[in-house]
Write a structure and sequence with these properties.
The complex is a heterodimer of chains A (about 425) and B (about 140).
Chain A lengths: L6 H4 L3 H22 L1 H10 L20 H6 L13 E6 L9 E5 H17 L7 E4 L8 H12 L2 E4 L5 H11 L3 E4 L1 H13 L10 E5 L5 H11 L2 E8 L4 E7 L6 E3 L4 E6 L13 E7 L10 E7 L1 E2 L11 E2 L10 E3 L2 E3 L1 H10 L6 E8 L2 E9 L9 H19 L4 E5 L14 E3 L6
Parallel strand pairs in A: 3-4, 3-5, 5-6, 6-7, 17-20, 18-19
Antiparallel strand pairs in A: 1-2, 7-8, 8-9, 9-14, 10-11, 11-12, 13-14, 15-16, 17-18
Chain B lengths: L2 E9 L4 H11 L4 E8 L3 E8 L2 H10 L4 E12 L4 H11 L4 E8 L5 E8 L2 H9 L8 H6 L1
Antiparallel strand pairs in B: 1-3, 1-4, 2-3, 4-6, 5-6
Classes of the chains: A alpha/beta (about 425), B alpha+beta (about 140).
Chain lengths: ~425, ~140
Amino acid sequence: MGNYFQPEIECASPEQIRAWQDERLMHTVRHVYDNVAYYRNLMKERGVEPGDIKSVDDLYKLPFLTKDDLRDAYPYGLLAVPLRDTVRIQSTSGTTGRRVVAFYTQHDIDLWDDCCARAIVAAGGTKDDVVHVCYGYGLFTGGPGLNGGSHRLGSLTLPMSSGNTDRQIQFMCDLGSTILCCTPSYAAYLAESICERGLQDQIKLKAGIFGAEAWSEEMRRDIENKLNIKAYDIYGLTEISGPGVSFECSEQTGMHINEDHFIAEIIDPVTGKVLPEGEKGELVFTSITKEAFPLLRYRTRDICVLSRKKCSCGRTHVKMTKPMGRSDDMLIVKGVNVFPSQIETVLLNKGYAANYQIIVSRENNSDRLEVQVEMTPEMFSDAVSEIAVREKELVDALKSMLGIYAVVRLVTPKSIARSEGKAVRIIDKRNLYE
Amino acid sequence: MTVKQLSVFLENKPGRLAELTKALRQNGIDMRAMSIADAPDFGIARVIVDDPYEAACVLKDAGYVLSVTPVLAVAIPDEAGSLYEILRVLGENEINLEYTYAFPTAKKGQALMIFRVENNEKAIEALSGLSIVPLCQDAINQL
């Protein structure tokens, strides 16, 4: 038996998954049409009725839902059950400036816990593990999600929440945490702190489940090497439930989407046309088992690729790549699309720390891209010329990756704010949308 | 016959050098000489102190990136032509000078010259022809 939490679901035949999806989609469409005026109006505008949706093949007939819809419908406009049936709300971090509130019934919490338990088991977790959760708790879904999954699995759960790095490390050492759950930037910071204190031998971590922000393969290797663990990606969004919408397995080549709960589509972000498997586009989710806050065709703004290639782990659910950028993370500098992950890749390849900040400004109507990087003992030299040579190499590497010139600025070590939640990687001073 | 110079990375931002000197002052470390090498976006503060080991520990703890570089310290008479003799000998012996800086000492009529060369041994030998012996760390403290 492999590492599965619900093998009969996770390894179900494609036909079985499809049958679940057809049935649950029909039910959900009827449910929201009957109970949510907002959906009813949207569907009427499109001339679609619940009876038109007989299977996943009919999904394209439904209108998309965007973050703007969620904002318009705030707070109760998309709630599909009576308030007395709900037990919880969670809310988005507001990274993009718009808060969204999602509601859960006990059933919704249970299915979310299942999804996170699947992720923990896929990372090698069992009842014997000590799961150290330092995602934020509270409105943010990270903490409650992994906490719930760990409970569901029956592992000892440390509800650490974020921050207080000294205490995190002390608990990790004292209680023998084996699985770490947090954002990748915080994992990198913890790894750095543990190495600085020479405590690598004191920790018993074997795996990490890191999500909620973009991170590169280089960053994964960096964290894996420093902590001597396997680092797994996890994906999710508050609107759809939270972390655990998809998760990585032992193959570490993409994240299995829990298709018994969520139908994924990839669309052309401009035309809205559904793209065939293997093409890069915007990820769209339809939640088909939720009661309180089911979303039909919700546009995530995440750009990625889906793959149905057979996975060596035995799971049959479709895999998505790590998002190749959020469209709201994406910068357009001098007309060129720039993703922070590209810059991160270059920095790590060149031996710099993963901590960086991107500052975009406009001078004389021309964009200026500045990358601030912290000086490290490895990169330092007594000779200005040697540092200048390394700086030039970095500028050239950025140029070849991005296609545009970036100014590199070396800054004081540890001066860039370390994140204990989501990293503020980008400072855009251009005020383009005001 | 060499002294240990601390080379400290400084971001090019107001107050950075003040912070560095504050860290030294707070730990009672006395500076004997200092020079700044500057590039457009950063600088390197090169300092000679009375206790380089202690200073390096203090600065590392304070989060600075630094390196310790052995350099030659020579006390020369503060008079016309005295530097020329030294540079002439180094040049004749094909010893490349990476940088140098001077600092007055407490002793009247005497300046402290710091030389960073690519080969300290070779330079010490060349200078011995002029009967010049570079100062050791203890001698720096006597200045």
